[in-house]
Amino acid sequence: MKLTLEIWRQAGPTHEGAFETVDVPDAVPQMSILELLDHVNNRLIEQNLEPYMFASDCREGICGTCGLMVNGRPHGPGQNTPACQQRLVGYNDGDVIKLEPMRSAAFPVIKDMVVDRSALDRVMEKGGYVSINAGTAPDADTLHQNHETAEFALDHAACIGCGACVAACPNGAAHLFTGAKLVHLSLMPLGKEERGKRARHMVDELETNFGHCSLYGECADVCPAGIPLTAVSAINKERARAAFRGKDD
Fold first, then answer.
1. What separation in angstroms does the CA of 19 have from each of 13, 26, 199?
2. What's the pLDDT score for residue 144?
3. Among 14, 29, 147, 203, which residue's beta carbon has the most beta carbons within 10 A?
4. Structural domain for 34, as ranges
5. Nearest CA-CA partner of 208 in 117, 120, 101
6. Which phi and psi angles does 114 have, rounded to 5°?
7. Above 90 in pLDDT, residue 37?
Protein backbone atom coordinates (compact mmCIF):
# COMPACT_ATOMS: atom_id res chain seq x y z
CA MET A 1 0.00 0.00 0.00
CA LYS A 2 1.36 3.38 -1.02
CA LEU A 3 0.78 6.32 1.31
CA THR A 4 1.86 9.95 1.23
CA LEU A 5 2.72 11.39 4.63
CA GLU A 6 2.76 15.06 5.57
CA ILE A 7 4.95 15.05 8.70
CA TRP A 8 5.60 18.05 10.92
CA ARG A 9 9.26 18.99 11.28
CA GLN A 10 10.31 21.56 13.90
CA ALA A 11 13.85 21.88 15.19
CA GLY A 12 12.88 23.31 18.57
CA PRO A 13 10.39 25.41 20.50
CA THR A 14 11.79 28.70 19.19
CA HIS A 15 12.02 27.55 15.56
CA GLU A 16 9.43 27.74 12.81
CA GLY A 17 7.96 24.40 11.81
CA ALA A 18 6.67 23.06 8.50
CA PHE A 19 5.26 19.91 6.97
CA GLU A 20 7.54 17.64 4.97
CA THR A 21 6.20 15.23 2.36
CA VAL A 22 7.31 11.62 2.63
CA ASP A 23 6.24 8.84 0.26
CA VAL A 24 5.85 5.38 1.75
CA PRO A 25 5.47 2.79 -1.04
CA ASP A 26 5.42 -0.29 1.17
CA ALA A 27 3.05 0.36 4.09
CA VAL A 28 0.97 -2.58 5.28
CA PRO A 29 -2.53 -2.40 6.83
CA GLN A 30 -1.39 -4.12 10.03
CA MET A 31 0.95 -1.26 10.89
CA SER A 32 -0.01 1.15 13.64
CA ILE A 33 0.53 4.89 13.22
CA LEU A 34 3.66 4.64 15.36
CA GLU A 35 4.98 1.64 13.44
CA LEU A 36 4.50 3.64 10.26
CA LEU A 37 6.68 6.39 11.72
CA ASP A 38 9.21 3.76 12.83
CA HIS A 39 9.31 2.50 9.25
CA VAL A 40 9.95 6.01 7.91
CA ASN A 41 12.63 6.69 10.54
CA ASN A 42 14.46 3.44 9.84
CA ARG A 43 14.80 4.48 6.22
CA LEU A 44 16.04 7.93 7.21
CA ILE A 45 18.62 6.47 9.60
CA GLU A 46 19.92 4.16 6.85
CA GLN A 47 20.43 7.27 4.70
CA ASN A 48 22.20 9.10 7.57
CA LEU A 49 19.33 11.59 7.80
CA GLU A 50 17.67 12.87 10.95
CA PRO A 51 14.61 10.86 11.99
CA TYR A 52 11.34 12.44 13.06
CA MET A 53 10.92 12.85 16.80
CA PHE A 54 7.75 11.52 18.40
CA ALA A 55 6.93 10.20 21.86
CA SER A 56 5.99 6.64 22.75
CA ASP A 57 6.49 4.19 25.57
CA CYS A 58 4.39 1.11 26.30
CA ARG A 59 2.63 0.93 22.90
CA GLU A 60 -0.13 -1.03 24.63
CA GLY A 61 -2.62 1.81 24.90
CA ILE A 62 -2.24 2.37 28.63
CA CYS A 63 0.43 5.06 29.16
CA GLY A 64 -0.78 7.99 27.04
CA THR A 65 2.69 8.95 25.84
CA CYS A 66 2.02 8.49 22.13
CA GLY A 67 -0.28 11.48 21.59
CA LEU A 68 -0.12 13.18 18.21
CA MET A 69 -2.55 14.55 15.62
CA VAL A 70 -3.54 12.42 12.63
CA ASN A 71 -5.33 14.35 9.90
CA GLY A 72 -6.30 16.96 12.45
CA ARG A 73 -7.71 14.52 15.02
CA PRO A 74 -5.95 13.52 18.26
CA HIS A 75 -4.53 9.98 18.01
CA GLY A 76 -6.28 9.18 14.72
CA PRO A 77 -9.63 8.40 13.10
CA GLY A 78 -10.60 5.58 15.45
CA GLN A 79 -12.85 6.68 18.29
CA ASN A 80 -11.47 6.35 21.85
CA THR A 81 -8.26 4.72 20.64
CA PRO A 82 -4.66 5.85 21.28
CA ALA A 83 -2.28 6.40 18.37
CA CYS A 84 -0.27 3.26 19.14
CA GLN A 85 -3.41 1.16 18.58
CA GLN A 86 -4.63 2.95 15.44
CA ARG A 87 -4.02 0.68 12.45
CA LEU A 88 -3.78 1.50 8.76
CA VAL A 89 -6.58 -0.88 7.81
CA GLY A 90 -8.97 2.02 7.31
CA TYR A 91 -6.74 3.73 4.76
CA ASN A 92 -6.62 3.09 1.02
CA ASP A 93 -3.77 2.99 -1.45
CA GLY A 94 -2.76 6.55 -2.34
CA ASP A 95 -4.19 8.20 0.78
CA VAL A 96 -2.53 11.21 2.35
CA ILE A 97 -1.96 11.18 6.13
CA LYS A 98 -1.00 14.35 7.96
CA LEU A 99 0.95 13.82 11.20
CA GLU A 100 1.63 16.69 13.57
CA PRO A 101 2.01 17.42 17.30
CA MET A 102 -0.89 17.89 19.72
CA ARG A 103 -2.12 21.40 19.02
CA SER A 104 -2.74 23.50 22.12
CA ALA A 105 -1.25 26.64 23.62
CA ALA A 106 -0.76 24.63 26.82
CA PHE A 107 1.39 22.07 24.95
CA PRO A 108 4.42 23.87 23.48
CA VAL A 109 6.36 21.89 20.90
CA ILE A 110 9.71 20.54 22.07
CA LYS A 111 10.75 19.03 18.74
CA ASP A 112 8.83 17.72 15.73
CA MET A 113 5.82 15.88 17.22
CA VAL A 114 7.02 15.88 20.84
CA VAL A 115 5.21 18.39 23.05
CA ASP A 116 5.55 19.51 26.65
CA ARG A 117 2.45 18.29 28.53
CA SER A 118 3.71 19.27 31.96
CA ALA A 119 0.73 21.60 32.38
CA LEU A 120 -1.31 18.47 33.12
CA ASP A 121 1.30 17.41 35.68
CA ARG A 122 0.98 20.77 37.42
CA VAL A 123 -2.75 20.23 37.82
CA MET A 124 -2.06 16.88 39.47
CA GLU A 125 0.62 18.35 41.72
CA LYS A 126 -1.97 20.67 43.22
CA GLY A 127 -4.17 17.88 44.55
CA GLY A 128 -3.60 14.51 42.97
CA TYR A 129 -2.64 12.82 46.21
CA VAL A 130 -4.17 11.48 49.43
CA SER A 131 -3.05 11.72 53.07
CA ILE A 132 -2.27 8.50 54.87
CA ASN A 133 -0.63 7.65 58.17
CA ALA A 134 2.67 5.91 57.52
CA GLY A 135 3.13 2.55 59.17
CA THR A 136 1.24 -0.72 59.16
CA ALA A 137 -1.42 -0.99 56.47
CA PRO A 138 -4.96 -0.73 57.91
CA ASP A 139 -7.21 -3.75 57.88
CA ALA A 140 -9.26 -3.83 54.69
CA ASP A 141 -12.51 -4.09 56.65
CA THR A 142 -11.90 -0.68 58.25
CA LEU A 143 -12.29 1.10 54.89
CA HIS A 144 -15.91 0.73 53.84
CA GLN A 145 -16.73 1.21 50.18
CA ASN A 146 -19.33 -0.64 48.16
CA HIS A 147 -18.50 -2.33 44.89
CA GLU A 148 -20.50 0.07 42.68
CA THR A 149 -18.75 3.14 44.08
CA ALA A 150 -15.32 1.54 43.74
CA GLU A 151 -15.98 0.61 40.12
CA PHE A 152 -17.28 4.09 39.32
CA ALA A 153 -14.14 5.62 40.84
CA LEU A 154 -11.91 3.25 38.88
CA ASP A 155 -13.71 4.11 35.63
CA HIS A 156 -12.54 7.71 36.12
CA ALA A 157 -9.11 6.69 37.40
CA ALA A 158 -8.56 5.09 33.97
CA CYS A 159 -7.58 8.49 32.52
CA ILE A 160 -4.05 8.14 31.14
CA GLY A 161 -3.27 11.86 30.84
CA CYS A 162 -2.50 11.75 27.13
CA GLY A 163 -3.85 15.26 26.48
CA ALA A 164 -6.16 14.25 23.63
CA CYS A 165 -9.06 16.02 25.33
CA VAL A 166 -7.08 19.28 25.36
CA ALA A 167 -6.03 18.99 21.71
CA ALA A 168 -9.58 18.16 20.61
CA CYS A 169 -11.15 21.12 22.40
CA PRO A 170 -11.26 24.35 20.34
CA ASN A 171 -10.70 26.25 23.59
CA GLY A 172 -7.85 24.02 24.77
CA ALA A 173 -9.73 22.99 27.91
CA ALA A 174 -8.62 20.18 30.23
CA HIS A 175 -11.91 19.80 32.08
CA LEU A 176 -12.35 16.13 31.18
CA PHE A 177 -8.90 15.31 32.56
CA THR A 178 -9.29 17.34 35.75
CA GLY A 179 -12.88 16.26 36.29
CA ALA A 180 -11.92 12.59 36.02
CA LYS A 181 -9.27 13.05 38.71
CA LEU A 182 -11.66 14.93 41.00
CA VAL A 183 -14.38 12.28 40.65
CA HIS A 184 -11.95 9.44 41.28
CA LEU A 185 -10.33 10.92 44.38
CA SER A 186 -13.57 12.27 45.88
CA LEU A 187 -15.01 8.76 45.98
CA MET A 188 -12.06 7.02 47.60
CA PRO A 189 -12.06 6.75 51.42
CA LEU A 190 -8.44 7.88 51.70
CA GLY A 191 -9.01 10.93 49.52
CA LYS A 192 -11.71 12.65 51.50
CA GLU A 193 -9.44 14.63 53.84
CA GLU A 194 -8.14 16.84 51.01
CA ARG A 195 -11.37 16.95 49.01
CA GLY A 196 -12.14 20.66 49.39
CA LYS A 197 -8.55 21.83 49.21
CA ARG A 198 -7.97 19.57 46.22
CA ALA A 199 -10.90 21.03 44.32
CA ARG A 200 -9.85 24.62 44.91
CA HIS A 201 -6.20 24.14 44.04
CA MET A 202 -6.66 21.85 41.04
CA VAL A 203 -9.38 24.01 39.48
CA ASP A 204 -7.32 27.16 40.03
CA GLU A 205 -4.36 25.54 38.26
CA LEU A 206 -6.66 24.28 35.51
CA GLU A 207 -7.97 27.77 34.80
CA THR A 208 -4.46 29.22 34.89
CA ASN A 209 -3.13 26.99 32.10
CA PHE A 210 -6.12 25.92 30.04
CA GLY A 211 -9.16 27.42 28.33
CA HIS A 212 -12.82 27.24 29.26
CA CYS A 213 -14.91 24.18 28.42
CA SER A 214 -16.37 24.47 24.91
CA LEU A 215 -19.50 22.46 25.87
CA TYR A 216 -19.33 20.51 22.59
CA GLY A 217 -18.01 17.22 23.98
CA GLU A 218 -15.12 16.70 21.55
CA CYS A 219 -12.98 15.60 24.49
CA ALA A 220 -15.00 12.49 25.33
CA ASP A 221 -15.12 11.48 21.66
CA VAL A 222 -11.33 11.12 21.45
CA CYS A 223 -10.50 9.99 25.01
CA PRO A 224 -8.66 6.63 24.78
CA ALA A 225 -9.83 5.68 28.28
CA GLY A 226 -13.47 6.35 27.50
CA ILE A 227 -13.89 8.88 30.31
CA PRO A 228 -17.56 9.97 30.19
CA LEU A 229 -18.45 13.56 29.42
CA THR A 230 -20.24 13.74 32.78
CA ALA A 231 -16.80 13.98 34.42
CA VAL A 232 -16.68 17.62 33.31
CA SER A 233 -19.52 18.42 35.71
CA ALA A 234 -17.21 17.60 38.64
CA ILE A 235 -15.33 20.86 38.06
CA ASN A 236 -18.23 23.07 39.12
CA LYS A 237 -19.66 20.53 41.56
CA GLU A 238 -16.46 20.08 43.56
CA ARG A 239 -15.61 23.79 43.44
CA ALA A 240 -19.08 24.73 44.69
CA ARG A 241 -18.87 22.14 47.45
CA ALA A 242 -15.49 23.49 48.56
CA ALA A 243 -16.78 27.08 48.60
CA PHE A 244 -19.84 26.10 50.65
CA ARG A 245 -17.88 24.10 53.23
CA GLY A 246 -15.10 26.63 53.66
CA LYS A 247 -11.30 26.44 53.68
CA ASP A 248 -11.03 23.67 56.24
CA ASP A 249 -12.48 20.96 53.97
1. 15, 21, 41
2. 79
3. 203
4. 3-111
5. 120
6. -95, 125
7. yes
